[in-house]
Amino acid sequence: MDNELRQFKTTSGEEIVCEVMQWTEGYDSEILIRKAMKLVLHESEEGVKYYSFRPWMVYQEHPEDIIVLNINNVVGIGFPPETLLAQYHEAVEEMAAMSAARESEYNKTFEEKVRQIAKRQKRAASPDKIDEMLQRMDSGSNVIDMFDPKKVH
């Protein structure tokens, strides 16, 4: 069962639909929300206007991500109609899938980088590589004299 779903109009003019996790109490001016989706107005070439949902905050797309909404930036609160809620739930599912795909891609990339580092460490730590590196260091000086020791500055 969903927590309370509300539609907010912010002082910036944005309209969001979200799940309210906790309402403000006393003098607290914050509302805890999640699954926040912004309503975006579009207009077709024929002049037909329609709305779509977009995540309200970038990278706050996981269904369990909590967002703090400052009540001082809210100018209106409404109950979204059923037709809007059906579209909202579909948009939240798409947002969650997008979040899961991004997380999966990140984990694959991270795992690949860990494998590459492990390979490099394995190659660097091999006894042959260490001996080769020590021989190069002993083969001559790689220090360059910058000053002539016979000259007083």
The unreliable regions are none
Examine the coordinates and then state which fold CATH places here, giving the name of the CATH topology of one domain.
Answer: SH3 type barrels
Structural class: alpha+beta
Q: Helical segment tally?
A: 2
Q: From the alpha carbons, calculate the radius of gyration and give it in angstroms.
A: 29 Å
Oligomer: single chain
Major sheet: 6 strands, antiparallel
Helix content: 25-40%
Q: Using DSSP, what is the number of strands?
A: 6
Portion of residues in beta strands equals 25-35%
CATH architecture of one domain: Roll
Mean pLDDT across residues: 83
Distance between the termini: 83 Å
Shape: elongated
Identify the CATH class of one domain: Mainly Beta
Write the element-wise H/E pattern from the N-terminal end onward: EEEEEEHH
Question: Can you put this structure into words, describing what you see?
Answer:
The protein has 153 residues and is an alpha+beta fold. The chain has a domain at 4-109: SH3 type barrels. The protein is 36% helix and 30% strand. It is built from two helices and six strands; from the N terminus they run ββββββαα. Strands 1, 2, 3, 4, 5 and 6 form a six-stranded antiparallel β-sheet that branches. Strand 1 (4-10) and strand 2 form a beta hairpin. The mean pLDDT is 83.
List strands and helices in order, with pairings.
Blueprint: E1 4-10, E2 15-22, E3 30-43, E4 49-55, E5 66-70, E6 74-78, H1 82-124, H2 127-138
Antiparallel strand pairs: 1-2, 1-6, 2-3, 3-4, 3-5
